[in-house]
Structure to design on (127 residues):
């Protein structure tokens, strides 16, 4: 059983991976640039791979920034863009203390539809 976008469902595995790779490229390179004016959109696939490697783990933004080589503002903006396009979802940190500030850490990142072939095409599934 396979799911996904109707255009990709009937494709053989190789063409399906290609379709989803092209989809991710279109969203990260064209759509986000057109919607937001992002100037370093070429960094989005790298950021997405870094997030995929941390799926289900605490999201420590300072580590992501350092590994991606992006500024704090750019990293935060790009995380927002990836959430806006449903490529990732951010799960808030849980704390008994409702006043705890988790900026710069806490929470977790998960790929949206992490079982989808789009997720697996950049290493998101099965992490």
């Amino acid at each position: 059983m396979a799911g996904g976008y109707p255009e990709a469902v009937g494709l053989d595995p190789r063409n399906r991976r290609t379709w989803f790779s092209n989809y991710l490229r279109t969203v990260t390179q064209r759509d986000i640039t057109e919607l937001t004016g992002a100037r370093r959109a070429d960094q989005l696939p790298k950021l997405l791979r870094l997030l995929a490697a941390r799926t289900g783990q605490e999201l420590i933004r300072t580590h992501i920034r350092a590994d991606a080589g992006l500024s704090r503002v750019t990293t935060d903006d790009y995380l927002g863009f990836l959430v806006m396009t449903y490529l990732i979802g951010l799960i808030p940190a849980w704390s008994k203390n409702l006043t705890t500030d988790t900026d710069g850490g806490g929470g977790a990142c998960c790929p949206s539809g992490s079982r989808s072939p789009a997720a697996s095409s950049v290493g998101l599934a099965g992490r």
